Automatic annotation (TrEMBL):
Belongs to the AB hydrolase superfamily. Bacterial non-heme haloperoxidase / perhydrolase family. This is Chloroperoxidase. InterPro entries: AB_hydrolase, AB_hydrolase_1, AB_hydrolase_fold, Epox_hydrolase-like. PANTHER family: HYDROLASE, ALPHA/BETA FOLD FAMILY PROTEIN, NON-HEME CHLOROPEROXIDASE. It comes from the Bacteria. Coiled coil: none annotated. The lineage of its organism: Bacteria, Pseudomonadati, Pseudomonadota, Alphaproteobacteria, Hyphomicrobiales. Residues 24-261 form the AB hydrolase-1 domain. GO terms for molecular function: catalytic activity.
Length: 278
């Protein structure tokens, strides 16, 4: 574990586990979480012989709670600072939800131009854009995101309990196997971060049009999502990603929720491993 300071003076926390000469896998977490959300995957791929790296987004987890820079451009530049500090090459970048947007912006702006990326994986990710626009009429109306902002500002602690215990993991579905530990861990990660970063991050993950980022991701990219994702509707996310990416492999899991990396790690992890090895 360590910290790197970005060009604009922000301390970014990162984990770096495993053999330094092994192929690196870099994990990008969702909103409003931290690199801890990848613990299951990091342990799994570490056991498979990979070097595993994950950082906390600015304003999230153990990274600095700065006032500015809560947008995809800064998110990607912060990742690049970690990657360059560790001099990672031939890396596989895996992003979940907002982290998928971060992967797309990083790979397009830094990874491909610098020749540091081998493959990418987008899991239940936000690109090309969550917001309903003229170009993407299937998106969600801005009132949905205004509602998220209002709930966060009014009572962030309760809002995070409600998200984790309901739609994020599909725990609101009949017959769901609810884990209080998973709910508590989601809440813990969220509450460690900055309310301002999380509030402004809603605009970043919902209004950033990443069409061109996807088109610039020329590396092989695996796109994964559940068709019961209640956070990022798959018809406007993974289905469109697969059309825009130059080299995409799409897999949609029947009935899986947004947080399927936790609830269905036994299925998703081996699929990602097969893609990396393939």
């Amino acid at each position: 574990m360590g910290y790197v300071t970005t060009k604009d003076g922000v301390e970014i926390f990162f984990k770096d586990w495993g053999p330094k000469d092994a192929q690196p896998i870099v994990f990008h977490h969702g909103w409003p979480l931290s690199s801890d959300d990848w613990d299951t995957q990091m342990l799994y791929f570490l056991a498979e012989g990979y070097r595993v790296v994950a950082s906390d987004r600015r304003g999230h987890g153990r990274s600095a709670q700065v006032s500015e820079g809560h947008d995809m451009d800064h998110y990607a530049a912060d990742v690049s600072a970690v990657v360059e500090h560790l001099d990672l090459t031939n890396a596989v970048h895996i992003g979940h939800s907002t982290g998928g947007g971060q992967v797309a912006r990083y790979v397009a702006r830094f990874g491909v131009p610098q020749g540091r990326v081998a493959k990418a994986v987008l899991v239940a990710s936000v690109p090309p854009i969550m917001l309903k626009t003229e170009a993407y009429p299937g998106g969600l109306p801005v009132e949905v995101f205004d509602g998220l902002r209002a709930a966060l500002a009014a009572n962030r602690a309760q809002f995070y309990i409600d998200l984790a215990s309901g739609p994020f993991y599909g725990f609101n579905r009949e017959g769901a196997k609810v884990s209080q530990g998973v709910i508590d861990n989601w809440w813990r990660q969220g509450m460690v971060g900055s309310a301002k970063a999380h509030y402004e991050g809603i605009k970043a993950f919902s209004e950033t049009d990443q069409t061109e980022d996807l088109k610039a991701m020329t590396v092989p990219t695996l796109v994964l999502q559940g068709d019961d994702d209640q956070i990022v509707p798959h018809e406007n996310a993974s289905a469109l990603q697969a059309k825009l990416l130059p080299d995409a492999t799409l897999k949609v899991y029947p009935g899986f929720p947004h947080g399927m990396l936790t609830t269905h790690a036994d299925v998703v992890n081996p699929d990602i491993l097969a893609f990396i090895k393939g």
